[in-house]
Amino acid sequence: MINSASSLVGVRFIGSGSAVPDRVLTNHDLAQMVDTTDEWIASRTGIRERHIADGDADSVANLAAKAGQKAIAAAGLAPADIDLIILSTSTSDDLFGTAGRVQKILGAERAVAFDLVAACSGFVFGMVTASQYIRTGLYRNVLLIGADVLSRWVDWQDRRTCILFGDGAGALVLQADPAQDHLLGFEMRSDGKGNDLLNINYSGRSTFEPISMNGQEVYRFAVRRVPEVIEKSLNIANLTVSDVDWLILHQANQRIIDAVVNRFGIDPAKAVSNMGKYGNTSAASIPIALDEWVKAEKIAPNHIVAIAGFGAGLSWGSAVFRWG
């Protein structure tokens, strides 16, 4: 912990990690379960396979801890160095929260740990939340994790939704830096009038209903609102789209990514897409993609990265940061 700060300190992004279950469910596998085909799914979503949790070994806590361990190691830190753990998840192992379990598995005994629930916007909202603890001088090292096991709440007979979702976790270490601030701009939004468009509702029978989604309306919402928050974040950062090295959107549908790319007129090669391998992993999708591109040395120190999440709530948000 930083004892005090007379002025705001900066934020750096210094380590990433990710973890997914070993079990892979392909579109061809789904075609044996519901009336669909690989071509139908891939042409409409860009998804060809997804990783699906298999028992307790792939709990939210275990996947989150695996991703967190990798991020901490990549940052050159030890679990004892972590001051705060924020777990962005909508599929907690425990309704009282799962971050404490992650803390225990990691052995991060000094860390405060709590869950943050904002569905597919969770990682962006978590990044902004984590940065405020750092900027005000309260904490030095924060572990942010996005993790979801949506397969628990999928109706595997509903071909509108079962084709979309996968499981996984991604993590990022944020660190205080008195000399520079690499979080350049952000914007967060919510509109409860659209809350009924994407839900996992309590059924009143000590359980929850499967995922329900109005896919057409969610698509319309995303292609209209996501470019707005990206533009807002860039304006705050005094940057333009041409300054962005990498655009990482929530991996919900390739058509949404394509629509945003076309709206901005940017090089499609700058738009990160890995949903073909993982599907929609909710709060985990952005950090999984970030980690994959960092590990492949595509995202390099000082690259400008713009991220945007969107989903249930309705909620949406964007952040622009400099890697490293």
Notable features of this structure?
single chain, 9 helices, Peroxisomal Thiolase, Chain A, domain 1, disordered N terminus, four-stranded mixed sheet, 324 residues, alpha/beta, 2 domains
Give an account of the 3D structure:
With 324 residues, the chain is of the alpha/beta class. The protein has two domains: 10-177, Thiolase/Chalcone synthase (Peroxisomal Thiolase, Chain A, domain 1, 3-Layer(aba) Sandwich); 183-322, Peroxisomal Thiolase, Chain A, domain 1 (3-Layer(aba) Sandwich), CATH 3.40.47.10. The chain is 30% helix and 24% strand. It is built from nine helices and 13 strands. The strands form four sheets. It has a five-stranded mixed sheet with strand order 1-7-6-4-5, sandwiched between helices. A four-stranded mixed sheet has the order 8-13-12-11, with helices on both faces. A hairpin with a 3-residue loop joins strand 12 (304-311) and strand 13 (315-322). The two termini are 21 Å apart. Residues 1-6 have low confidence and may be disordered.
What is the end-to-end distance? 21 Å
The best one-word shape is globular
- Structural class designation: alpha/beta
Number of helices: 9
Chain-averaged pLDDT: 94
Q: Describe the largest sheet.
A: 5 strands, mixed
Could you name the ranges where pLDDT drops below 50 across 5 or more consecutive residues?
1-6
What integer value in Å does the Rg equal?
Answer: 19 Å
CATH architecture descriptor of the largest domain? 3-Layer(aba) Sandwich
Tell me the CATH topology of the largest domain. Answer: Peroxisomal Thiolase, Chain A, domain 1
Strand content: 15-25%
How many domain units? 2
